[in-house]
Amino acid sequence: MICGIIDLGSNTIRLSIYQCQEGQSHLLMNRKVTAGLADYVEKGTLSPQGIQVACHTVKEYRRLMENLGFPNPHVFATASLRNVSNTQQAARRILEETGLTVDVLSGEEEAQLSFLGAVGVGPEQGLLIDLGGGSTELVEYQGKEIRSSCSLNLGCLSLFSRNVASLLPSKEERRAIRSQVREQLDHHIPAPPTIAHACGVGGTARAACKAANLFFDRPRDCRMLSAGELRRLLKRLKKPTRADLHLLLKTAPDRVHTLIPGMLVLDTIARTYGLEDITVSPWGVREGYLRERVLKGEEPL
May I ask the CATH architecture of the domain 2-106+285-295? Predict the structure, then answer.
């Protein structure tokens, strides 16, 4: 059985194609378009241009699935459509142009599906951090059980768009980003527990770990980022040298503008919870969606 999942995110729109059999799923192909839908939000509304970008990308992914002889993909949206005032209008337009229905996830649903997709990769108990372009989901868990979860109404791209005038944030802009993250944390988690270990989900968390691997000459396949390394990396990038900028470009050329805002989010969360390290997961909300919304009831999982 072949399943395609389209993740309509605030920063990137991804297509993941899986082969599913005997209760297991294997990733066959992954495509990504850096659409930056959060940049098309004007006064809380996703602009017609932003909706058209989403329609075009989803249509291209559906055509790819058809050309490969696979069934139509399943489509879900996170903060890209959830946090705008014209959610229904945008979803209806995508349906009219592509023939595909968009499942708009709530913040709580996104947090739960991210946890289910990433479970087993990080520590047995701790905090899951799903850092996206327009929202950040936090899940406190023990074993395979969720103890609490919340969704912060900010992400690496929305913070960049709101606060950063140039390519990299200035000292004042860094302070503004941290202040907004702390405000959200204080609102959702007024008395945060002390948690030593976290599991990081999303492209920005992966890029931050990859940056640490390059900057600190660590093994390329290292998936753990200590809180101390994250702070050292942020300090070094306050006034990056030419060589530092080249390393940033090698790390994630499509995330140069959002990587530092994303690392500021991770560092602020790490300080709030007293984290020692973050283990980065290669899986997340798409795998959780595949398991719970597509395959559950069809195959034993």
Answer: 2-Layer Sandwich (3.30)
- Give the Cα-Cα-Cα angle 8, 42, 165 (nearest 5 degrees): 95
- From-to residues of CATH 3.30.420.40 in the chain: 2-106+285-295
Class of the CATH domain delimited by 122-280:
alpha beta
Nearest to 11 by CA among 157, 186, 135: 157
Tens digit of pLDDT at every position of the chain (301 positions):
999 999 999 999 999 999 998 778 899 999 999 999 999 999 999 999 999 999 999 999 999 999 999 999 999 999 999 999 999 999 999 999 999 999 999 999 999 999 999 976 667 889 999 999 999 999 999 988 999 999 999 999 999 999 999 999 999 999 999 999 999 999 999 999 999 999 999 999 999 999 999 999 999 999 999 999 999 999 999 999 999 999 999 888 989 999 999 999 999 999 999 999 999 999 999 999 999 999 885 543 3
Q: What are phi and psi of 147, to 5 degrees?
A: -95, -35
- Give the tokens for residue 35: 């659409």
